[in-house]
Amino acid sequence: MIEPYLAFHGVTKRFGDLDVVAQPFSISVARNEFVVFLGPSGCGKTTLMRMIGGLETPSSGAICLEGLPVGGPDHRRGMVFQSYSSFPWLTVAENVLFGMRYRKDLTEQQKLARRDNYLELVGLYDFSDAYPNKVSGGMRQRVAIARTLAAGSDVMLMDEPFGALDAQRRERLQVELRAIQRRDAKTIVFVTHDVEEAVFLADRVIVFSKRPARVMADIDITERLGAERPLELRDSPEFFQLRNAVLRLLREAAGDEE
Amino acid sequence: MTDISETAPVTVPDPRTAATAPRPDPSSIWAFRGTLSRRAQIGIGVGTSVGLLLIWEAVARIGLVNTTFLPSPSTVLSSMLMMVQKQNLLQHAGISTLRVWVAFILAAVMAIPIGILMSSYRVVGAALEPIIDFIRYLPVPALVPLSIIWFGVGESTKLYLLWLGTFFQLVLLVADDMRRVPHEYIEIAHTLGANTRQTLRDVAFRAMLPGLVDNLRITLGWCWTYLIIAEIVAADSGIGFVIWTARRYMKTPEVMAGVVVIGVIGLVTDQLLRALHRRAFRYL
Ligand SMILES: Nc1ncnc2c1ncn2[C@@H]1O[C@H](COP(=O)(O)OP(=O)(O)OP(=O)(O)O)[C@@H](O)[C@H]1O
Ligand SMILES: [Mg+2]
């Protein structure tokens, strides 16, 4: 059997006497897969993702990357947060460069070249010298994405990264992120509350129950919608149907709350 | 449903008395929470100050108050000039400033690392917080006798009193600045491969710096308060000494001149540090 790229092996998590994940949780994520975690508020999505990043440790079980249990955080698993995603005292370009600050295997030249490359990729080259407070919220999230890419993360962990953006910016960034993920061959674990966002971005949507988190559904989106996700896809009946199906699942998962 | 307007006449509100929310003229200087150009702000500030001085001068000249208690601004100014020439006022001011800065730097150099450690490691915080919180509430003047017993009346007593007044406050302020650094920044640094030392230096310290500089500026102001106490109690030099000596001979203009000198030094330092803050932290 081939070792999966990223895997949860019977993971549980407790905070004191609060069970976040009670039933041992196992899933595996393939290399270059875009996985979206969807679930009711407080069910433990962030916690699961932080465990991948090494920012929390499982109470039992293990999370493995390429067969090896993950330890503390390192640059192979990059995080993009919803807020405070970039450093305000560094310019856009310096923020991206900071992603490689602790990499000893790159020369200064290589770092600068990578910085410019990723600034270009996320469309921020013209804003290189701006400070984050002078650019829009969407641009700040792109700074964080470019920083994570430049750092050389193989796995990008994104916790509601577009949560604070208006609908239009959000759609644009979704298209861009999906394109970047395809082009740069990244594995992404993405948390959102927005069903449309989940279906549009994901190769696979995992729907969680209320806390303690259990997997309610594991839906292969690419099988149904294909890997290419142009903006027009949102208007297609297939997308609409799938969105509704996932929405129903999420309502069920939320259970008697509704 | 019948047409209401036929049975009950609709009253059209008189626009002059209509109870709508007031719509203030935004260009008025009285606009609630409005803005004011920098020039206008400076102009109004200077105008008010000059106006007050003029009133004060007039009151003193007309003789509405006893000038022994409230000499006119012009008298204060001329005694200040006299003091500069005959009493080495500038030298005393220099000595006081030096004392403030030495004690302040001493306090800062100790408070910054300790404050940072308190917020970085729970053990350090838990160990030091009760002690520091307690000492912080001791009024500095109450400690004067004790410090004279310990250090005599030399230079070290004054420095010690100033240090005492600022160090404990500053430690807690620094600890607060550090605590307020968003945890996301720390986690970003960790996921980029920074170790603890690198995270502290490159991210946490950098993130707290604007707040830290602001708190240093505020604490420096407190230093001046304690300086005067220290110099009144035990000194033969410095502005506090000058003021206290002048008081003994009821030379009110000289007392006031001394106070004004402190005010001016404080104002200038504060404005310089503010300007520095604006320049250094342009990204804010
Ligand atoms: N460090 C912690 N200590 C104690 N409890 C925690 C901690 N982190 C999270 N929790 C609790 O664990 C539960 C799951 O939190 P988590 O943030 O993972 O949920 P979530 O699915 O991301 O929620 P949301 O959709 O609102 O972001 C919540 O009840 C939360 O209060
Ligand atoms: Mg969350």
Automatic annotation (TrEMBL), chain A:
PROSITE patterns in the cross-refs: ABC_TRANSPORTER_1, ABC_TRANSPORTER_2
Pfam families, sorted: ABC_tran
Key words, A-Z: ATP-binding, Nucleotide-binding, Transport
CDD domains linked: ABC_NrtD_SsuB_transporters (cd03293)
InterPro entries in UniProt: AAA+_ATPase, ABC_transporter-like_ATP-bd, ABC_transporter-like_CS, ABC_transporter_ATP-bind, P-loop_NTPase
ABC transporter domain: residues covered: 6-235
An MF annotation (GO) of this entry: ATP binding
Family: Belongs to the ABC transporter superfamily.
UniProt protein name: ABC transporter ATP-binding protein
Source organism (scientific name): Skermanella aerolata
UniProtKB/TrEMBL annotation, chain B:
GO biological process entries: transmembrane transport
Pfam families assigned: BPD_transp_1
Region (Disordered): 1-26
PROSITE patterns from the UniProt entry: ABC_TM1
Keyword Cell membrane attached: yes
Compositional bias annotation for Low complexity: 7-22
Primary localization class, coarse: membrane
Protein localization: Cell membrane
Keywords tagged on the record: Cell membrane, Membrane, Transmembrane, Transmembrane helix, Transport
Membrane topology per record: Multi-pass membrane protein
Residue ranges occupied by any ABC transmembrane type-1 domain in the UniProt entry: 93-273
Gene Ontology cellular-component annotations: plasma membrane
CDD domains: TM_PBP2
InterPro entries in UniProt: MetI-like, MetI-like_sf
Membrane spanning stretches: 42-64, 100-122, 134-153, 159-175, 224-243, 255-273
Keyword Secreted: no
Superkingdom of the organism of origin: Bacteria
PANTHER family in the record: ABC TRANSPORTER PERMEASE PROTEIN MJ0413-RELATED, ALKANE SULFONATE ABC TRANSPORTER-RELATED, MEMBRANE SUBUNIT
Family indicated by similarity: Belongs to the binding-protein-dependent transport system permease family.
Name of the protein: ABC transporter permease
Organism: Skermanella aerolata
